[in-house]
Amino acid sequence: MRLLVLFLICLTSAMAKTSSQSISNLSSPPKVLVTIKPIHSLVAAVMEGVGTPELLIEANSSAHTHQLKPTEAIKLNAAQVIIWVGPIYETAIQKSIDAVRKSVQLITVSDLQGIHLLPARSFRHPVDGCAADLWQCHLGHHHHDGDHHHEISGKDGHLWLAAPNAKVIVKGIAAQLSQLDQRNAPHYLANSKKIIKKIDELHADITQEMKTVKGSKYLTYHDFTQYFDMAYGTECVGAVRVNPEVEPTAADLQDVRREVSHGAKAIFSEPQFDTKTIRTIADDTNVIYAQLDGLGFGLEAGPNLYFEMMRRFASDMKKALQSEECGR
C-alpha cells in the first residue's frame, strides 16, 4: 500500500509540474487542501462564500501516525494550495508533503507571522524560567520567522488548542489567500474579521468556564493539552506517552503513578488511541478517566467545527476535573 501511495504521489506530482499554471493567474479560486479538521475549519470559514477547501485526513486518525491512502494521495496532488501545521505535527505524512512541495503553494501554519509556539514538555523542567500555567509568560517567545522552518523540532504542534493562536491562523491564512487569489481578497479579509470576533467571544467564554478548575492538575495518555493549559490555567503534570510514536516504558508508567499521588485529579486520553493502558492506570490509582478530543472526531467538517470542538473540549475537561463520577 505504501509503495502504491508513493508511486501515485510521484506520478501525479510530475504531471502537475508539466501542466500547472501560475496560481496567481487562476480564473477561479484555488483548490485548497487542509490536512486536519481544526485547521480545515478555520480555513473553511475564511473561504466561505468563495470556495470550499478539501480535507485530507477525514478518518478518526492521528496525523502523528496516519498512513496515506491512495485516494488521499490523489487529493494531495490535485491541490494547488496545501495547508498543514508543519513537520512538528504531521510527522507521518511529511515525506508525502515534501514530494509535492515544488508543485504546490504550501502554507505551514507553524511558520505564520505571530504564531505562538511552545516547546514540547518534559514535565521535569520549567520552560525558560516560566511557570507552567501562564500563557502570557510565553508570548515573548512566539515564533515569527519562516526562515527557521528546519529549526522547530522539539516544539509542540497542537497549537490550535488556544484560541489566541486560532486568531493568528485566521489572519495569516486570509492574508496568504488574498495574495494568491487577489480577485477574492475582499471576501477573505471580510470573513477573517468576522471569524476573529467570533474567536474572541469563544476565548472569553472558555476563560470564564474554566475559572472554577483553574490550577487543577491532571494526566494525559499523550501530551496534547499544553496550549489549552497555557491559555486557560489548567495543568497537565505528566503523560503516559511523552512521544506519541514511542510506547511508554515502565519508568514512564511509574512517573504517572507518582503524579497521581501528588494530586492529579484525572487522566485523559484521545479517541484515536487505545485506552487499555490508561484505563488500567486510572483503575489502579483511583483517578477519573475521561476522553478529550482536540481534532473534532464525530463532528461535521466545516466552518463551525473549530468552535464546537473547543467548547466540547473545555466542557469535557471541566466535568472530569469537577466530578469524581465522570468517565468512571
UniProtKB/TrEMBL annotation:
<dbReference type="GO" id="GO:0046872">
    <property type="term" value="F:metal ion binding"/>
</dbReference>
<keyword id="KW-0813">Transport</keyword>
<keyword id="KW-0864">Zinc transport</keyword>
<keyword id="KW-0406">Ion transport</keyword>
<keyword id="KW-0862">Zinc</keyword>
<dbReference type="GO" id="GO:0006829">
    <property type="term" value="P:zinc ion transport"/>
</dbReference>
<dbReference type="InterPro" id="IPR050492">
    <property type="entry name" value="Bact_metal-bind_prot9"/>
</dbReference>
<comment type="similarity">
    <text>Belongs to the bacterial solute-binding protein 9 family.</text>
</comment>
<keyword id="KW-0732">Signal</keyword>
<feature type="signal peptide">
    <location>
        <begin position="1"/>
        <end position="16"/>
    </location>
</feature>
<dbReference type="Pfam" id="PF01297">
    <property type="entry name" value="ZnuA"/>
</dbReference>
<dbReference type="InterPro" id="IPR006127">
    <property type="entry name" value="ZnuA-like"/>
</dbReference>
<protein>
    <recommendedName>
        <fullName>High-affinity zinc uptake system protein ZnuA</fullName>
    </recommendedName>
</protein>
